[in-house]
Write a structure and sequence with these properties.
This protein is α/β, with parallel strands linked by helices and 307 residues long. The protein contains 11 helices and 6 strands. Helix 7 links the parallel strand 2 and strand 3. It binds S-adenosylmethionine (SAM).
């Protein structure tokens, strides 16, 4: 379970947005989406503003309900949710074949949960790239607490315009982040996505960019437990209580109370509501096998380019 408490949740809603501007940020964020009349072109043109508003609004909810790593994972029977999250991070380090001391880039790093685990597991130095200032400030604090602040850092930049020269890093990974790229319902609005694209389009884009794809697989296909299980209201787990139907009901009421007494900014309940809508959309998309957040690929630059 996450270490963040109710007061962290309340004080974090809105991130770097002024507390009295949170409600209008929620309204502006909702208006980007088709179900509120938003146009695709406007979403693409304003994707930085859209996803920054989204992450300012939701980060403390994610941390409260999900922990320090903001992604899904394939999961074995008997494995806890947090174990499955860490196993995926270890798997990525092994797939990338990194060696102690190497420099690694985490693209779209959230508050750095994956990069801390990756760095500790592989003894590498990991830089997190993120365009959200609030998440970077949280990540720096958590790096310090975890004792990896000497070897791991953050860079604030848009991953569509990376500020690094070629071969700065020995390896690069991204976990559930490039879905926010602008060139490419419920899941879109509740997860800050501009427009969802198919796995075949991702593969095609990789090849067109000149990468050699070593292997790819949708882990959703044969994960013994479905990736959406933590969000499925019919599933109960004590170790993951905050994600269950009862836990979410209590969180909702907690947010209503915190907003009422002024500890959480106005608009906090609206954020909880759109996250709830997203959770339902994700479970539905997972059950109908029309959406996956755990499509994996391993690719490399062709030999001649990587010298
Ligand atoms: C779902 S979160 C995943 C975070 C992290 N990979 C994890 O698993 O904890 C997506 C992340 O991508 C970042 N992001 C989205 N679009 C970005 C962009 N254009 N440039 C840099 N970061 C971006 C967001 O700020 C957020 O941190």
């Amino acid at each position: 379970m996450s270490k963040a408490g109710a007061l962290d949740l309340a004080s974090g809603v809105g991130g770097k947005i002024e507390k009295n501007q949170v409600l209008s940020a929620v309204e502006k964020y909702e208006k980007y989406h088709a179900c509120y009349g938003g146009e695709e072109e406007e979403r693409k043109a304003n994707y930085t503003d859209m996803f920054n508003k989204y992450y300012d609004l939701v980060t403390s909810f994610y941390e409260f309900g999900w922990g320090e790593s903001f992604h899904f994972a394939p999961r074995w029977k008997g494995e806890s949710f947090q174990e499955s999250i860490k196993r995926l991070q270890h798997f990525l380090a092994l797939q990338l074949g990194v060696k102690p001391g190497q420099k690694v880039l985490d693209v779209g790093c959230g508050i750095g949960g994956p990069l801390r685990e990756f760095a500790r597991f592989s003894s590498t130095s990991v830089t997190g790239l993120n365009n959200n200032e609030y998440q970077i400030s949280r990540g720096k604090e958590l790096n310090r607490i975890a004792g990896v602040d000497k070897t791991c850092d953050f860079v604030k930049a848009d991953f569509m315009k990376m500020p690094f020269s070629d071969n700065t890093y020995d390896a690069v990974y991204a976990i559930q982040a490039t879905c926010h790229a602008p060139d490419a319902a419920e899941i879109e609005i509740g997860d800050g996505l501009p427009d969802i694209r198919s796995t075949s389009k991702c593969l095609e884009a990789l090849k067109q960019a000149g990468f050699e794809v070593i292997w790819e697989k949708d882990f959703a296909v044969d994960s013994p437990l479905p990736w959406y299980l933590p969000l499925d209201k019919s599933h109960f787990s004590l170790s993951n209580f905050r994600q269950t139907a009862v836990g979410r009901f209590l969180t909702k009421n907690l947010v209503v109370a915190l907003e009422f007494v002024g500890l959480a900014p106005k608009g906090s309940q609206r954020v909880h509501d759109f996250l709830e809508t997203a959770a339902e959309g994700l479970v539905e998309g997972g059950k109908r096998e029309i959406f996956t957040p755990i499509y994996f690929f391993l690719a490399r630059k062709p030999e001649s380019d990587s010298q």
